[in-house]
Amino acid sequence: MTTKQGDQASPQASASQPNESTVKSAPPPETPAAVLTRFRVIAAFWAVIIFLGFPIWWKTTSIYRAHLPIEEMVDWADGKACRPVFPLEIHLATPSMQSIEAQHLLRTTQHTLDDLNEFAAHHLRLKLANDSATASHSVDNGFDGAINAEGQAPDTALTVRLLAQEGLAAPRSELHAATTQLDVFYPPSQVPVPSSSNSPLSAFIAEELQQLYGEEKATIAHILSGHTGSLDSTSPRIAESISRRLRRSMKYAETYHLSFSLFTPGSEPSSWDIEAAVKEYLSPLLQAFEPISNFTVDTQVQLYANFAPTAPRPEYDETEAAWTFKKEDLSAFVNAAEWPLNPSIGNGPTINFILYVPDPSQSPLIVKENRASSWIVPQWGGVYLLNPTLANSKQGQVNPAHLSQDSLGPAFMTFSHQLLTLLGTPSTPSSLPLRLQTSIRIRAATLLLSASSTMGSLARLTESLPSIPIPASVASSVSTTLSHLGATCSHLREGRFGAALASARVAETEAERSFFEKSMVGQVYFPDEHKVAVYLPLLGPIGVPLVVSLLKELKRIAAGRKARRAAAAA
Amino acid sequence: MIDRKVMVFGAAFVLRLLLICLFPSLPDLLTGRVEVSTPVNSFKRLQEGLFLYSGNVSPYDGGTFHQAPLLLPLFALLPDAKTWPLPTAIFYILVDLVNAQALVTISESGQSINSRFHSAVRKHVRWNGVSVAAWFLFNPFTIATCLARSTSVFTASGILFAVSNAVSGNSVNAMLALGFASYLSMYPALMFLPLVLVCYDRRTQSPQAPKIAPFILQHAGLLLASVAGLLGLSFLITGNFWEFISATYGFHLLVPDLTPNVGLWWYFFIEMFDSFREFFLGVFWLHLASYVGGLTARFRRQPLFVITSLLGVFAIFKPYPSISDASLFFALLPLYRHLFPLMRYTFFAVSAMLYSSLLGPAFYHLWIYAGSGNANFFYAITLVWSLGLSILLADTIFAALRDEWEQDNPGKQGTEVRQV
């Protein structure tokens, strides 16, 4: 209790001011009206808290957890929901054979194939081409016909045409490089007679097919076994080449950005026929890859691009009459610090292709050990050293100012080859459509496994962290993923690999989206104890006086009631 | 007496006009200051909305305009502020003068001293209406708000007219004015309860006294009707009801724009974990709203004082406060001149506010332009500003309680403390 200066200034108050000792000894009792007012004040604050505060608290901090089909997700991850199988349908066209003979040949060849095959998930199914029209149809369409996504019939993986040819001692085969057709020439004498159970021709065909699909089979076995073991019988050489290929190739993505860059240390060449070159050499390939991934292409020309100051310089080699780089120095060739190579544009990985035109004073430039002019940078891109014919001018020899489409030809051939490697396309067989088909099957298997394991991880995550929210969008993504995984599996079983890949791509995208849902991971690192730190600093200071006053008020009411009861009893 | 009023109003008019003419860049400078212009009252944003509106595009399309749509046709009538700044400026000055006139009415009614249940102990310590108006008109915060052409002045006139009509007994007009203010800025609707009590106390002084519950319901209906009418008009203007509701009231409620201002919200919500954002939005709004019930119950005898202290609460705890809110609180404070002798921390509160109004712009400059400070510099100053305001507010409330207590216990002296 303090004396107020203001009171002295006010004559009314000071006139009625009693001496201080009275005040201190006897504070005036509270009037019932004051008690009622205080009750109303406290009630007003608590009414706001109870009728508005608690509902808001409940509404805004409750965690929404959509229902997820956990068991089904775990089944997919454990491989219980689907055993991927790859039945390849191979048509046998026998224009010069009797139907009976053809049937017999088919049976024996199939028998031999089944004997040879030790990986059950991947098997070849032979079928007679009904008539030549079907055969030629599928041959004409080549690759496109093999990946019809809507069709209910299985994709035709390969057409084998048996052609009789006089004057052959043993059958020989010829694979068309641009179509899915294998021509087998055989001496007419080797047509199997229905009585015999084996024939050199069927053994030959089975052997050929087995060889054709050997690498694919090994790769799929490698993927399905989870990169740990592979087929026992796979030769170490093939296993080595498969794992080497997988190490070099980019991780699968919906969209790849291809970036073509022309680097030169001088001022020339300053232009190139890049648009025509891409259209001529690359577009057909990209079109063929359309069912697997999308591509965007951008290009740039960078003049006065120097090597990194610490990078080794090329040396002149007298015997080769050329400037050379040592093989081990190639890793320092790309000046990552100064050359404007975008690590990634948008949301897909970038594959960089660098066309380097050396300075006239250092031309020609090659790799020392093998005189190569190009190399792959694993999971990053490719480099090609272009040594154009030098033009003479007053200053001596100079690079041409413009690179025509023809001079870019070899470089782009190399680039398309590098692109195939970077995308993980197998190196055999020699027919490009067959390799792309193989690629489709491999990708479908990879995506199927990856989406399944993402589902498993998501299931484990939501199980182990009961405090994270699961938005409805995640639940719908999960159900889309599961249905597309199912579709992939059944498409695979029926041999429709194009459709299977399309479903698998959707499944993979949705699975990634559900796993990386932003609102879900936000609270992963937010344990319950931290909530105290969130609530207390603000709500503590507000809450304590409110709670204390509420308790006091309750005590007063209880005391009043007791007193009244006591009075009533007395 | 009339001469004095004319002199004060004339001087205020001339002062503002002089400032604009002598320093032509001053209005634009002030318009850009974060202390004066917030996302919900900035004149710049209004012009953006106006440009879109005159181009027949939805004014809310750009995402920068968050003010009530009825302001647009009003400002479309005025000539372009860029090429002809004077008409707009004169319009704002007139609004200021009209607000001052409302203050004069409030002051002369004497409701702040003598009301139905209450009669102040120090009745003779008071200022007349013209002095109160002068305090308002020559307050640098008011002048800055006027020059910056902030649209908060319309909310302020809505509130002041509601109060002035209430104290003079025009309860219908009071509700319409409050409806206008609520339509513009939403938060004035919280003042409905004390305002209707002012009206009711005023009505009971006349012979036929109505019952309190129907009276409140009637006036609540009136308020709702006026707001609904204004919303209907806005719908006619914008054409897209939900777009304008979410761009204006949604913007007030959800506080998506965390541009620094003199308030306490922006820094807190920058730092807040995303998952708790909604919860704390609720807490902050409830905190703001919870004062209404408590203060009204405690000061049932002085509803006009509840309005004054609520304005102080809003100036501190609003999501987008500016100095215009503080100037409105300061405008009503001189009505309680008789409480000044009872206040204990005036020196501390005033120096805290002076300190922050001088250092605030300096620290903002250090943070944003010089780059030698960081956000904490400015936030610390806004904390000091809010602290100064809260001390002043708590002190006023204490003085009013003390005054009531002295009235109840004549000749006694002691302290009664009720923390808010």
Give average pLDDT of chain A, whole number: 78
Q: What percentage of residues of chain B falls in helices of 4 or more residues?
A: 55-70%
Q: Say how many strands of chain B there are.
A: 0
Number of discrete helical segments of chain B: 18
Low-pLDDT residue intervals, each spanning 5 or more residues of chain B = 414-420
The largest sheet of chain B is: none
Shape, per Cα inertia axes of chain B = globular
Tell me, briefly, the overall form of chain A.
Answer: flat
Structural class of chain A: alpha/beta
How much of the sequence of chain A is in beta strands?
A: 15-25%
Structural class computed from helices and strand pairing of chain B? mainly alpha
Distance between the termini of chain B: 40 Å
Distance between the termini of chain A: 39 Å
**Order of SSEs of chain B:** HHHHHHHHHHHHHHHHHH
**Quick check: average pLDDT of chain B?**
88
**DSSP strand tally of chain A:** 17
Please count the helical segments of chain A: 18
Oligomer: heterodimer
The major beta sheet of chain A can be summarized as: 5 strands, mixed
Task: Provide the fold topology.
The complex is a heterodimer of chains A (570) and B (420).
Chain A lengths: L4 H5 L1 H5 L4 H6 L6 H30 L8 H9 L7 E8 L5 H18 L5 E7 L3 H10 L1 H4 L9 E9 L7 E4 L5 E6 L13 H13 L1 H11 L11 H13 L6 E9 L7 E2 L1 H15 L5 E9 L12 E3 L4 E4 L24 E7 L8 E3 L6 E4 L3 E5 L5 E3 L2 E3 L3 E2 L1 H18 L9 H33 L7 H22 L3 H19 L2 H4 L8 H40 L1
Parallel strand pairs in A: 1-2, 1-3, 3-5, 6-8, 6-11, 7-17, 10-12, 11-14
Antiparallel strand pairs in A: 4-5, 9-10, 13-14, 15-16
Helix pairs in contact in A: 4-18, 5-14, 6-9, 10-14, 12-13, 14-15, 14-16, 15-16
Chain B lengths: L1 H21 L3 H7 L10 H12 L16 H7 L7 H25 L19 H9 L2 H8 L4 H16 L3 H15 L6 H13 L7 H27 L2 H14 L10 H7 L5 H22 L4 H15 L5 H10 L13 H25 L4 H34 L12
Structure description:
The complex is a heterodimer of chains A (570) and B (420). Chain A has 570 residues and is α/β, with parallel strands linked by helices. Chain A is 48% helix and 15% strand. In chain A, the strands form 5 sheets. Chain A has a 5-stranded mixed β-sheet, with helices on both faces. In chain A, strand 1 (86-93), helix 6 and strand 2 (122-128) form a beta-alpha-beta unit. In chain A, helix 4 (32-61) runs antiparallel to helix 18 (530-569), helix 12 (274-288) packs parallel to helix 13 and helix 14 (432-464) packs parallel to helix 16 (497-515). The longest helix of chain A is centred in the last third of the chain and has 40 residues, at 530-569. Chain A starts with a helix and ends with a helix. Chain B is mainly α and 420 residues long. Chain B has one domain (4-412). Chain B contains 18 helices and no strands. Chain B is globular. Chains A and B meet through helix 1, helix 4 and helix 18 of A and helix 14 and helix 18 of B.
